[in-house]
From TrEMBL:
Keywords: Cell membrane, Membrane, Transmembrane, Transmembrane helix
This protein's record includes keyword Transmembrane helix: yes
InterPro entries recorded: Poly_Biosynth_Transport, Polysacc_synth
Phylogenetic classification of the source organism: Bacteria, Pseudomonadati, Pseudomonadota, Alphaproteobacteria, Rhodospirillales
Regions crossing the membrane: 21-43, 93-118, 130-150, 162-179, 185-206, 244-261, 267-284, 305-326, 338-356, 363-383, 389-411
Protein name per UniProt: Oligosaccharide flippase family protein
Topological type in the membrane: Multi-pass membrane protein
Cell compartment(s), UniProt: Cell membrane
UniProt source species: Azospirillum melinis
Length: 457
């Protein structure tokens, strides 16, 4: 009886995670659709030059936020997944840690911007400097969303992630309809929606956990976890976005705009097929060793989604870009095709890296992205000036492939699993539709049979 009850509970957990995973993928798909809508609007309204300027401003500040984030999101997710009572103390402790870090990040950004945007006009540099305080919002938002994930509150997490692009799309459309859409207006809208998400997330957490007394011991413990993850965060950010950070210093705004379109389309594969990675870490952490099955099933689902989407984009890249974005973006098709294989592998790598976080191996996860960072940095410095955006695309795909190969090797070593378990399980794939869409039966204890057997016997 006990064995049957345990099995039903395990099945219910798998089905619950599958539904949360599907919801996350669907929300990500809706977010991507909104991103495409706003991207089309920007491309059609301000052209490659305007898109390049907007990309330079937003990406530079976003990257600085990631680089100074200290891995706080992963650290608080892990800590809260292990101890739900720590929510209020984590909130207050990490807020006090991040505020001075944000001040340093803003100062560093102010000094670096003239170099990072060397090939851009003075107006773009001035706008980027005005946008720099949003680094503080980015750091605090990472904290709040990490805590919501640690609560296993995937519904609120998905809703907050949808709120910002939905709001941006609505306001962008209103500005376009009234003839007031400019790069400056777009930056203001992004800042306003980021602030709104932070305010809502903070209100949810304060209502749920309250504001606890800052806990130095908890701070030291989680900072140590965070610092071990930060190398992975930094390496991942550099591997993913160093091309867009470096290109504005060497190439014209038009080339930046063309490459930004290619990367944004390829990154749709990472965002959608890798959406499960966001919920894998807290769910696998709470499940312990049984979370490994969840990681492997998520890996296989990621490959399936990525292969389907990437194959379609590869075949129809020219047609899609021409119809949606216009002929001025036709030169984005080849960089997009070069980026797609690496994007699929990087999405799969994100599952395995989050699996390592769940195994309390954050520094091990760092090694994969550090390798990708080294390859990306060396390749761009060697080939970007002569090869332009095509060289940037090739270097990125090579780096993404190495990150996946390294992540798979490290996850296998950390868990002691055989390579065979990484292959798709036909039984799991056959049962997947039922897990996703069937309502699970309630998990109840089965009454024990009478020692004498049924009555009348």
């Amino acid at each position: 009886m006990l064995k049957g009850l345990t099995g039903r509970k395990a099945a219910a957990k798998r089905n619950s995670f599958a539904r949360h995973g599907v919801a996350t993928v669907l929300v990500t798909a809706a977010t991507m659709a909104l991103g495409l809508l706003t991207g089309i609007l920007v491309a059609r309204t301000v052209g490659p030059d305007g898109r390049g300027a907007l990309t330079a401003v937003l990406t530079t500040v976003q990257l600085l936020g990631w680089l100074f984030g200290m891995g706080c999101g992963k650290a608080v997710t892990y800590a809260l997944s292990r101890d739900h009572a720590a929510g209020g103390r984590l909130l207050s402790t990490w807020t006090l840690i991040l505020l001075p870090v944000a001040a340093v990040a803003i100062g560093v950004g102010y000094l670096l911007l003239p170099t990072l945007l060397a090939a851009q006009p003075a107006e773009t540099l001035a706008l980027a400097r005005l946008y720099l305080p949003m680094i503080a919002m980015a750091l605090l938002s990472e904290l709040m969303l990490g805590l919501i994930l640690g609560d296993q509150d995937f519904r609120s997490f998905n809703a907050l992630n949808f709120l910002q692009p939905a709001g941006v799309a609505i306001v962008y459309a209103a500005l376009w309809a009234t003839g007031r859409f400019t790069v400056e207006a777009a930056v203001i809208v992004q800042a306003a929606m980021s602030t709104l998400v932070l305010v809502v997330a903070t209100a949810v957490l304060v209502r749920r956990h309250g504001i606890g007394r800052p806990d130095p011991a908890l701070g030291r413990q989680t900072v140590w976890y965070a610092l071990r993850t930060h190398g992975d965060v930094v390496g991942g950010v550099i591997t993913q976005r160093l091309d867009l950070l470096i290109i504005p210093a060497f190439l014209s705004a038009t080339q930046v705009g063309l490459y930004a379109l290619a990367t944004s389309l390829s990154w749709l594969i990472v965002s959608l097929s890798g959406a499960l990675a966001t919920v894998v870490m807290p769910a696998a952490t709470r499940r312990g060793q049984s979370g490994r099955e969840l990681v492997l099933n998520s890996l296989q689902a990621t490959f399936a989604i990525g292969g389907l989407l990437g194959g379609g984009l590869f075949v129809f890249a020219d047609i899609a870009i021409g119809l949606v974005y216009g002929p001025s973006f036709a030169d984005s098709a080849l960089p997009l095709r070069l980026l797609l294989p690496g994007a699929i592998l990087y999405a799969a790598a994100s599952i395995l890296l989050n699996g390592l976080y769940a195994e309390n191996r954050p520094f091990t996860a760092t090694l994969a992205n550090l390798l990708g960072m080294v390859v990306t940095l060396a390749g761009l410095l060697l080939f970007l000036r002569s090869g332009g955006i095509l060289a940037a695309a090739i270097v990125s795909t090579v780096a993404y492939t190495l990150v996946f190969a390294t992540a798979a090797t490290l996850y296998r070593r950390a868990t002691g699993l055989s390579w065979r378990v990484f292959l798709p399980d036909p039984a799991m794939l056959a049962a997947l539709p039922r897990r996703l869409f069937d309502k699970p039966a309630p998990v109840t204890a089965t009454p024990a049979a009478s020692p004498a057997g049924p009555a009348g016997k």
